[in-house]
Design brief:
about 130 residues, mainly alpha, about 0% strand, extended
């Protein structure tokens, strides 16, 4: 069952990242308007495709009896997977200039109530 889920998940990843790549490449050619392609989304699509295309044969082909030189393929896939979360987070946070400051502000607002909260959660406290 897990092999089937792995195959479905990786195949779905290929389809979704391929759709993202097509949308990024075709988005700049809409209605004859010249606009620059978004490089962050382009990199995210390429990294996602690289991970899924490398992981699919590396994990699924040995299960059906085809053995080959998969260490290089696996290494390339994991390199792409290593960069993918950073690129996706950057694509989300790049238009929010005060995102870290907002996090710090919320942490400072919560900090004074933290000892009271931990005291209420502790069974040894007689509050």
């Amino acid at each position: 069952m897990s092999e089937l889920l792995n195959l479905v998940g990786l195949s779905t990843g290929v389809a979704l990242y391929a759709m993202l790549l097509v949308m990024v490449l075709r988005g700049s050619a809409v209605a004859g308007v010249r606009s620059a392609r978004d490089p962050v989304l382009l990199v995210a699509a390429v990294l996602g495709l690289a991970w899924n295309f490398c992981a699919l044969p590396a994990y699924e082909l040995p299960k059906i009896g085809i053995v080959g030189p998969f260490p290089w393929l696996t290494a390339v896939g994991f390199c792409a997977l290593g960069f993918l979360p950073a690129v996706v987070v950057h694509s989300v946070l790049r238009h929010r200039p005060h995102a870290p400051a907002g996090f710090a502000r919320r942490a400072i607002m919560i900090a004074p109530s933290w000892p009271d909260t931990t005291c209420r959660l502790s069974s040894e406290c007689g509050c």
